[in-house]
Hints:
Elements: H1 2-12, E1 17-21, E2 27-29, H2 30-39, E3 47-48, H3 55-66, E4 70-71, E5 90-95, E6 105-109, H4 110-124, E7 132-134, H5 141-154, E8 158-160, H6 166-174, E9 179-183, H7 185-193, E10 201-206, H8 213-223, E11 227-233, E12 237-241, E13 253-257, E14 261-265, E15 270-275, E16 281-283, E17 290-291, E18 294-304, E19 307-313, E20 318-320, E21 323-325, H9 327-335, E22 340-349, E23 357-365, H10 371-379, E24 390-394, H11 407-414, E25 426-428
Helix pairs in contact: 1-2, 2-3, 4-5
Amino acid sequence: MLYEHWLRTALERPAEIALREGASGRQWTFGELADAGGKRESVAGKVAYPRGISAEFVIHVLQAWRDRRIVCPLEPGQAAPVVEPPPEGIVHLKTTSATNGRSRLVAFTAEQLAADAENIVATMGLRQDWPNLGVISLAHSYGFSNLILPLLLHGVPLILADSPLPESVRRAAAAEGELTLAAVPALWRAWLDAEAIPPNVRLAISAGAPLPVPLEEEAFVRRGLKIHNFYGSSECGGIAFDASTGPRQDGTCAGAPLHGVQCAMGSEGCLEVRSSAVGQTYWPQPAEQLQDGIFRTSDLAELSGGLVYLRGRSGDQINVAGRKVSPETIERVLLAHPAVRECVVFGTPSADVERSEKIVACVALKTETPAEELKKWLLAELPAWQVPRDWRIVDSLAASARGKLSRTEWRERLFPSPGGQMPPGLRNR
């Protein structure tokens, strides 16, 4: 189904540019890309593992679609999962981002993948005359659904930058007309600081992590560019999109549900997502939170006025002497401080009160700033009990290629087992 859909897409525009590689300078028309994917010799095995950010990734996917093999995209250096191939009808396996401490595989049918692409294209207004400039991981759900599927199923051309570094992005965009650029907040921050956001970007999208309102406002004031916050999940693809034309007033607002997506409140205040794009199952171990076209997230949420507001994750809530606070609440206020570049907040066991936690803030700064000043900043917006007691200043929080900051990972790094060494670049405050 997917390969036949691709061939129809290619036949509609055989002489137009479909794909360009920034690193090599090579380019393919839709007709040439169809030939490249169709002429490759078949490879043994039920599962294909495309990797990297290159034309080879795209051709590898086409070859797998042609041969009816399951596609399981991987990051460079990531080992292939050791599991039995899923049952008949499954064409794609996504690897979740492991923000809750462990990664899982999600199985999709062709219809579910195509539905996600349709929802994204229809909601965001992706256009064939605004090529996607590709800098994010093609293996992650975000990159595959926003870059690969619009190219192969909707004819939206793709320009692959050789790296996300400011100069590489400028160079890749320079030869193009109007562009769509999908990235993560850390990249938008770096490009804005380096004055490297290409002037021909017409549609700017940010996902992978919540887009801080101060960053959104700064881009709008300095560049006149609206960065649209996009919220999704590996288990169900796109969920919500902020289509407004100006900066949001509330950083918890994820936007409105995508075309074809229905959102509802589930148990314990967590969001439930229903759509034709919801994955079939976790593989090889199914779970009740993903079944029958419904994904039951662990995201605490509120639905109001047709918009989705995210209030944190149920498993990340910090228990402070019987009162609970979401770390995202603290992070949003901290990120509004002009000296804070990045931050992550989490709880660790407290020796003061049984079954209680202390709040830890791990912060990367733009300029040297005392922790006391950051505490005063928080106290002006939050109750005293929500202000972190433990402050760690680091050189960088270095989000993953998916734009994720794992609280589990930073908790383990900063609070190693007894006798462990403090990580380099870390200072107590």
